[in-house]
């Protein structure tokens, strides 16, 4: 009798009974790396357009906010591209 991973319990009787049948699980596949929200080339493209708009509204509060958002987007895309979090 061939059972993989099983132990046998013997008693006074001539019959052997398996104690357990161990079933191995397949190894888990590694989780894929999450895709960055925006790739570096797209971030640069968007930043160029944003900077054109900002230059036309220089000195306005909305232009300063847009410049800050543009900078944060570029930093995030750059960090994702080089592997920094």
Give a topology summary.
Layout: E1 8-9, E2 17-18, H1 40-56, H2 61-82
Helix pairs in contact: 1-2
Outline the structure in words.
By secondary structure, this protein is mainly α. Helices cover about 45% and strands about 5% of the residues. It has helices at about 40-55, 60-80; strands at about 10, 15-20.
Q: How many beta-strand elements?
A: 2
Distance between termini? 56 Å
- Secondary-structure-derived class: mainly alpha
The average pLDDT score comes to 78
Unreliable stretches (pLDDT < 50, length at least 5) are none
Total count of helical runs of at least 4 residues: 2
Beta-strand portion reads under 5%
Largest sheet: 2 strands, antiparallel
**Spatial ordering of strands, largest sheet:** 1-2
- Helical proportion, percent range: 40-55%
How large is the radius of gyration?
31 Å
Shape: rod-shaped
Query: What's the helix-strand series?
Result: EEHH
Outline:
With 85 residues, this protein is mostly helical. The chain contains two helices and two strands. Helices cover 46% and strands 5% of the residues.
Which structural traits does this protein have?
85 residues, mainly alpha, two-stranded antiparallel ribbon
């Amino acid at each position: 009798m061939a059972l993989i991973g099983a132990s046998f319990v013997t008693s006074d009787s001539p019959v052997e009974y398996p104690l357990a049948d161990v079933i191995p699980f397949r190894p888990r596949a590694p989780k894929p790396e999450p895709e960055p929200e925006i790739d570096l080339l797209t971030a640069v493209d968007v930043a160029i357009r944003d900077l054109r708009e900002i230059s036309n509204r220089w000195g306005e509060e909305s232009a300063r906010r847009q410049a800050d958002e543009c900078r944060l987007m570029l930093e995030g895309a750059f960090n994702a591209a080089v592997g920094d979090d």
